[in-house]
Design brief:
The complex is a heterodimer of chains A (about 260) and B (about 300). Helices cover about 35% and strands about 25% of the residues of chain A. Chain A has about 260 residues and is α/β, with parallel strands linked by helices. Chain A has a six-stranded mixed β-sheet. By secondary structure, chain B is mostly helical. Helices cover about 70% and strands about 0% of the residues of chain B. In chain B, helix 2 packs antiparallel against helix 3. The radius of gyration of chain B is 20 Å and the shape is globular.
């Protein structure tokens, strides 16, 4: 359960460029929900994710995770329960380390990074099995540096790595936007599978309306820091891409474009 | 012959320094100028302790510890006080100059010629045959460098070492792993400056004195060693390694380990300096030779000052 309560967020506060991102914004995300978030550029989608993860500070309001106030908790401490995949495939892996080393790093999340061996030999078969499930042939390249892999391969690894240990929340920040259509499709299928299997509460920001419709059990449209559309369950299942497009056009007209 | 031994001696001493610089420059991507202060710090501490008849071996460990503490402070200035990397190093380097003078009893020069060191002591006098004496320093240095290299290699393959490599590569991932990236940098700076101060301690014991100016240009020497090593030797593949690659991509097929490359780079760089001196440069031109050679390496090595200038 993730609760955002009366959030206020300004950018460039106190200057002539002051911009109000969120004013009195509240949102509640229940356990097991898979929320697709859509909206135009600057509507506050990524800011929302950054606030939840603690990457940017908020000006007022509270954020609670499973009832616990995490408003002032540092970013890295929150990540214990959170897995995050970024738009840029390079953000989720270490390019100069091998696939095996990257998998070992991810496997150690939540444990102490002490002086024990970085790679537990007994876990190698497990890593190989996990990589095989991607169907990209990475299981035969354990000693290859991640830096030479393609964006799609890296993003698949990033997804695998961020969900390898026990987490509760998965934050997906336009994670298919930098990929070609076919790879994006593979990554989305993998996302759906992982979320289902691990029962993760997920928030996915996307510009791909079809993914927003096909995946997830709740759909939120952001506009100027407000959720102008928020549907779940049956209602969400009935939503078509055309409905979202219409809504988009509606706001554009309201804005006078 | 004596020139050759001289190259080996100096090269090996600076190899320890280079291992430290390798951690900050290559792994952490942090241009750490505090090296110019921690290298003479190791020397000052050693000279002071040995002049008070402390065990020469003990001074090695104490120097490492003192260097690590100074590295922590650089890390603290950068991470907690949010001063940018280059400036944190400069602040430490400047402050350490005075600290080093204080350690050495406010003397810019502290000789320990008459005292026992790791190179010159009663034990070696009795056990080492006369014929081996000229090579004694090189042998002792080889042992120290080998221990440092093996320990560093082992460390880089621990969980903590993995995290250190990750933080220079992709800070975001370290945060995603629920670890404080600032803390990891701090640990890296501590270990790096520990090695640097250890090098200073060995340098002092080999030369038989502490001198405040030994630190000037230490970072340049360290960087030169690392860059030469990485450029010349990192991608060198042995026949055996090449053959393994054919068997299947599963096998590891790397050239030399980075740490080995850095040590070799140090020896090559020292040879270049010795060559320049042999061509008629004087000892007082040493820093000029050091700087010009480093510039040549940057230009020829195709670094185009990317990392160095990028931070400056």
């Amino acid at each position: 359960m993730l609760e955002l309560d009366h959030i206020e967020k300004f950018y460039n506060a106190g200057t002539v460029h002051e911009m109000c991102m969120f004013h009195d914004f509240s949102m509640k995300i229940g356990d097991g929900e898979f929320v697709s978030v859509v909206g135009s550029n600057g509507s506050g989608k990524t800011s929302l994710l950054n606030l939840i993860c603690g990457s940017i500070p908020l000006d007022a309001g509270t954020i609670r995770m499973n009832g616990k106030d995490i408003t002032h908790m540092s970013e890295f401490r929150r990540q214990r329960q959170i897995g995050r995949v970024y738009q840029n495939p390079a953000m989720g892996t270490c390019p100069s380390m091998t696939i095996l080393e990257n998998m070992s790093l991810a496997d150690n999340k939540g444990k102490s990074f002490n002086l024990r061996r970085g790679t537990d030999k007994k876990r190698i078969d497990f890593y190989r099995e996990q990589l095989r499930s991607l169907g990209l042939g990475l299981e035969d390249k354990l000693h290859v540096k991640v830096g030479v892999l393609s964006g799609g391969q890296r993003q698949a690894m990033a997804l695998l790595m961020s969900t390898m240990t026990k987490i509760e929340f998965l934050i997906l920040d336009e994670h298919t936007a930098a990929l070609d259509p076919k790879t994006a499709e593979i990554i989305m299928e993998l996302t759906g599978k992982l979320v289902r299997e691990k029962g993760l509460t997920s928030i996915m920001v996307t510009h791909n309306l079809r993914y927003a419709v096909e995946y997830g059990n709740r759909l939120v449209m952001m506009h100027q820091g407000h959720a102008i559309m928020d549907v779940a369950g049956e209602e969400k299942a009935a939503v078509r891409t055309k409905d979202i497009l219409d809504k988009f056009n509606e706001i554009s007209i309201e804005c006078g474009n | 012959m004596s020139i050759f031994i001289g190259i080996l001696e100096e090269g090996l001493i600076y190899a320890i320094l280079a291992l430290g610089v390798y951690i900050t420059y290559k792994i952490l991507d942090f241009p750490d100028l505090s090296v110019d202060g921690t290298f003479p710090m190791g020397a000052a501490l050693t000279a002071m302790l040995i002049s008070k008849d402390a065990s020469p071996i003990l001074t090695l460990f104490l120097s490492f510890g003192a260097g690590a503490a100074a590295g922590c402070l650089t890390g603290f200035i950068h991470v907690k006080l949010r001063v940018r990397d280059l400036l944190s190093g400069i602040i430490m380097m400047t402050a350490l100059y005075s600290v080093n003078l204080r350690i050495a009893g406010k003397k810019a020069n502290l000789p320990i010629f008459t005292k026992e060191t790791i190179f010159d002591n009663g034990f070696f006098d009795q056990t080492i045959p006369e014929g081996l004496k000229p090579f004694l320093s090189v042998l002792v240095l080889l042992v120290i460098v080998a221990i440092c290299k093996v320990l560093l290699d082992l460390y880089l393959n621990t969980r903590s070492g993995y995290l250190l490599r990750a933080v220079g590569d992709n800070e975001t991932l370290v945060t995603s792993l629920a670890k404080d990236k600032g803390m990891v940098k701090l640990i890296g700076l501590a270990i790096a400056n520990g090695f640097v101060a250890l090098a200073g301690s060995v340098y002092c014991q080999q030369k038989g004195f502490f001198e405040i100016s030994t630190g000037t240009g230490a970072i340049v020497i360290g960087l030169a060693n690392v860059i030469i090593g990485m450029k010349l030797f990192k991608n060198l593949r042995f026949l055996g390694a090449g053959a393994k690659k054919e068997e299947g991509s599963e096998k590891k097929s790397y050239g030399l380990k980075a740490t080995t490359a850095v040590i070799l780079g140090s020896l090559v760089y020292r040879s270049c300096v010795a060559f320049a001196i042999a061509l008629g440069m004087e000892a007082s031109d040493l820093k000029l030779v050091t700087a010009v050679l480093f510039l040549l390496i940057l230009v020829i090595g195709g670094q185009k000052g990317k990392k160095v200038a990028g931070h400056a």
